[in-house]
Amino acid sequence: AVRSLWLEGELPVLPGVAVVGARRAGASGQEEARRIGADLGRRGVTVVSGFARGVDAGAHRGCLAAGGRTLAVLGCGLDVDYPSQHAALRRDVAASGALITEYEAGEPPVSWRFPQRNRIIAALTRAVVVVEAGVESGALSTARWAAELGREVLAVPGTILGPGNQGSNRLLRDGARPYLDSSDLADLFPECGAPPP
To answer: Given 10, 61, 84, 125, which residue has the most CB atoms within 10 angstroms?
Structure first.
């Protein structure tokens, strides 16, 4: 159970769409996340992600570049500078959305906190899109939380020629919907069914 949430910025319209995936995503995974974030942001759909390197950062940046609003769910206290290379991104998210956490000031980003924060990502959304995920990726725990909470789970199909997409491709094999573009969310977000503004 979540006892309290701490917020920096202004909470965007929810529920949104989570865009999650590997921290060590390849160039194509990061570009896919950026494009998905931008397309959703342009349509006024809030992009929710975990503020990690790789896919998460790509989704947040794409959304912001398109003039959208994004919500970053942290696995540490709001005052903890993590990841340290995201200082500029943090300022941008707080200015055009919000950062949120269940952890009090000073709580460090220890590894067990990230799977826990994934339940909050899932809870704040109507759908979770997994962009690129290996079989050990934390993004799969977000997908599991989403399924448990009755959210839609989608995955971007990826190459089978390496381990980077095995987790997301297995989601597809096991019944997740494929995500090819924002029209795949039109049943949940009518604005995704119209041509982009």
So the answer is: 125
